[in-house]
Structure formats: C-alpha cells, structure tokens
Amino acid sequence: MAGRLLLVLRLLVRDLRRRPAETLLLLIAITAATGTLTLGLALDDGAALPYEHTRSATAGPDVVARPLSTGDDALADLAPLTTAPGVTGHSGPYPVAFLELTARGNAVQAVVEGRDTAPSALDRPAIIDGTWVRPGGVVVERAFAEALGVHPGDTVDVGGHALHVLGIAVTAARTTYPYAGWHFPGSPLSERGGLVWVHDRDIATLAGGEPTTYSLNLALDDPAASEAFIDRVRPSLDRADFDGGLTLTTWQVIADLDGRPVERAQEPLLIGSWLLTALAVAGVSGIVAGRIAGQRRRVGLLKAVGAGPAMIAFVHLAEYLVVGLTAAGAGLVTSWLAAPALIHPNAGLLTTAGPRPPSLSVVVVAVALAITIAVAATLAPAVRAVATSTTAALADSAAPPRRSRWRIRLSRRLPVTLLIGVRMNARRPHRAWLVTVNTFVTTTALVAVLMNQVQDRSFPVGDADLANPLTEGTGQSVFVVTIVLVVLAVINTAVSTWTAVLDTRHPLAVARTLGATPGQTGMGLTVAQLLPALPGAAAGIPCGLGLFLFAWRGRPQYPPGSWLLAPGLGILLTITLCTVIPVLVLSRRPVADALQRTPLFRVL
C-alpha cells in the first residue's frame, strides 16, 4: 500500500512540475468559484455582527414600544409596560414628532426624538462625530446623514426652524434610514424617513401644532424571549379603555431590517458563484481532457505492470483533488480578507474589528464545491482512460474520427471555410460543447448585469430623491462578480482556442496540402470556434433576462433591444480575436514541419 501511495505521489508531483501553467489555470478557475461562494456565505454568517456590536455599545433595548395615540393618551398606553412581568428596566418615554427636514435643498421626512443631555441607562446613541444634543441643535443618525450629505457644523431646517448639526450618531433602538418608521400620527402605515435627535425642550416648538407621540425602551430578564414577552403582555393591553394601537418591536426584528443591505449584497455573490462554478467546470474539463489524453501511454504502462482500474482512476483523480483542495483554501483566505474591503455593513451601525474567520460550515461547503468541480471535470476522461485497452494505450494511437452520413452530406456542399469548421467540431464534439457552455454562462451573466445597470436608482424619501443604501452593497457585489466572471471566461476562451489550434494543426496541414489556402484554414478554425458559440450567445440573452427578473424586486426597466445584443456580440468578437492570434502563428509554419512530426495515419 505504501508503495502505491509513493507512486501516486511521485506521478502527481511530476505532472504538477511539468505543466505549471495549466496547473495555475486550474487553480484560478476553482479558486474563483469557491472564493465567490464563500464570500457570499461569509456575509450570511456575519450579517448580524454589526447590529450585535452596535447593540452592545449603545445599550440597545430588547423591546421598543410605540403607540399610535398621541399626548397623554400615548403616555397612558405605555404606562402598564414599565411594570409588566419580565421587564427589568426601561428608558423614556421619549417624545417623538414626525416632521419635515430640509438639508441642501432636499425636503425629506424625519422622525424627531427628544432626548436629554444626560446619557440614559438604556439606549445610549454612540456619537460618531461631534457632540450629543443640546438646546438649539440636532444630532443626525449616520445613515441618514450620509444620504443627506450633512456634517457637524451644517445647518438644517426641522419643522420650519433652523438648527445646527451638532453630531452624527448610531443607535440600535430604531431601524436605520430609510426605515426609521415615519408615519402620520394615528396611522399604522410607515413611510420612508430618517431619525434625528433634538433636546426634549425643543421638540414642542419644532412640532408646532402637530401632535407628538412617545417611544419607550424596555429591557427584559430574557432578551432572547422577547417574542414570548410580547405574546404574554398583548392580551393585557387589549382592554376596554385602550383606544389606540401599540407597536412592540423586538431587537431581533430591528437587527433583521438593519441587515438587509448585507443580504442584498449577498444575493449577487451566491448567484454569481453558481455561474462561476459552471464556467469552472467547463474550463477545468477542457484542460483535464487534454492532459489525460496526453497521458495515454502512461495508462498503458500502469496496466502493463499490473495496476487495476481503481489504481489508474486514483492516479488521475489525485492530481486534481490536490489542486481542488488548494483552491478551496485559497478561496477561503481570499474571501476572508476581501469581505471587509468589498462589502460594508449598514452605515447606521458600528463596524466590527477586522475580518471574521469563516465558520466550519462555510469551510465544509467550500471544500465540497472544490472537490465537486475537480471530480466532475475529471471523472469522464478518467473513465475513458481506464476503459482503454493496454495495447491501444501503449501504442498511443489517435482515436478514429467520428463520421456520420448527415454530417458528411452537409459539409461537402459547404464552402471550404465552413467545411473545415464543421468537420473540426464533428471530430471534437466535447470541445465544441464546452465552448457553448462557456458562451452561454458568460452571456447570461453579462445580460443580467446590463439589466441591473439600467434600472432606476432613484429613492424617493418625502419630496426628495436620496441615495438608496440597499443598493450600494449590491453594486459592489455585482462589480466583483462581473470582473471575476469576465476574467474566467477569457481564460476559458484562450485555453479552448489554444487547445483547438494544437489539436488541429495536423488536419489543417493536410487541408493545405489538398489545396486550401492559409486564409481558408485560418478562417475555418475561427468558424469552428464561432459555430458552437452562436447558440450559447443566442440562448444566454433570454436566460440573462430571466435570471435578472428572478432576482429583481420591483418593476424592471428594459434597455433598447440593441443593448441586449451587445454582450453576445462582444463575446463572439472576443472569441474571434482570441482565435486570430494563434491562427496567424500557425499559418506561418511550413506544412512540411507539421506533417513530419506526426505519422500520416494519426492525421487521417
């Protein structure tokens, strides 16, 4: 057993050292897929961390109560909650008014909460810049401030009164912009808006004749059972003298809403990871098929010395399993380091210190994906190698080309260029299929990205259109996936084209001896790459539209039809350019050199 493992190890090291360029391409392809997937999964694992950190730093409440009633009725509705079973502490009630705020010419809806200058035991907003509230000033929640473009020292108008911006703060007691819970007094329907704090002496003046309501923060003896607390106290609030409605919001609900920007950023990464997996399988399959085909004589030697099918299959799989595991590790490290730089949490939350190592589940998924890609790309060529007879493998003779009557009938009536292209694909249908898959996946992704770019990003808040924080992380994720996908698609195209050039240099030399010009053979090779790419590009356009509509929330906007054709045409142009360069190199070689290197029976 030790001798067999030593043999496998020596063959593995020898193959990796002899073909470093192909090994690097395999590593890049699998790393791209595993890294993107683990980046998306890492976001899912760490989506709640910023809120948990903010809640801890600001003494966030476990439950927040907000009545629909106003004035003394609101205070009466909140009073029973302070002594309810399970409540260990509270802060407030704080006066709240729903007013209009104007900054830099933008009139938006603002939830204005009155606070004292002294910090409270529960819900202490963390000052990011500037100072806390005092009479005549306002403190703006950070996500809201970024959307408005205001900073400490600026002047804003709140309810018709000019106030100086004293500071920027974050809190865990209310959902950040744009879902701070603005609504008309007495209405349960919330609208978009942001949160600001003012001194409690100023709120009556700012509100003018508008009624004010209140907000109450509660601390529980069991924060994890906040939903059970609400179910327990709700029946006692449904009394005869209770006229208004009461909204009880748990910290888990606030955390979920504040984590939506990260969730939105996660979706393109997960979808893109599956597209990259398909590209990785296609690219790795092309490289692996060529490498195993070049190892047929070694298969014959292993069989001649007594190696069985399992041993031969393991020899072929071991190299790619090692590459896959290495790529999984590289993908995990890359995603771990890239996550803080590429994806930012909600601006209304405090960031955590440093990247978080991937969890065990993420590591398992990454390793499983890398192994799946390696096995899926290697299994079929390995089985064909095992099924090859010892004599045929030692002879290392070329497999006879597949010929069918309908292909011959079709191709013989075509021009020389098309004839060469059709017959090249007929001899290597597997390679043509990989070109189709590569083109299809790339076109699908690029059309979906194009659709995402033409959508209207305006985000109405009151009478103004502000930035949408939900789409900022999404844009970064789409950019990352697009760059990685384009790079991997170009690598696949270059590898497929170069493999086709090396594989067809002898048949093309024979075609030139029979009268074909260098231009006709070169165009024939280009046609051989374009023919399988055409159906992939054609099918990728509607599939890209479908993929975008599946993931998009809301009414989509469509670009002109010519724009949708651009990704497919661009990919076909890229394939043509990738083919022209090796074709020019091949056309300069004398025909005699190509024919002398290989016996005639292998060419025919």
From TrEMBL:
Record bears the keyword Transmembrane helix: yes
Limits of the ABC3 transporter permease C-terminal domain: 272-387, 480-589
InterPro entries in the record: ABC3_permease_C (IPR003838), Macrolide_Exporter_MacB (IPR050250)
The keyword Transmembrane helix is assigned to this record: yes
Membrane topology: Multi-pass membrane protein
One Pfam family cited in the UniProt record for this chain: FtsX
Cellular location(s): Cell membrane
Family to which the UniProt record says this protein belongs: Belongs to the ABC-4 integral membrane protein family.
Record protein name field: ABC3 transporter permease C-terminal domain-containing protein
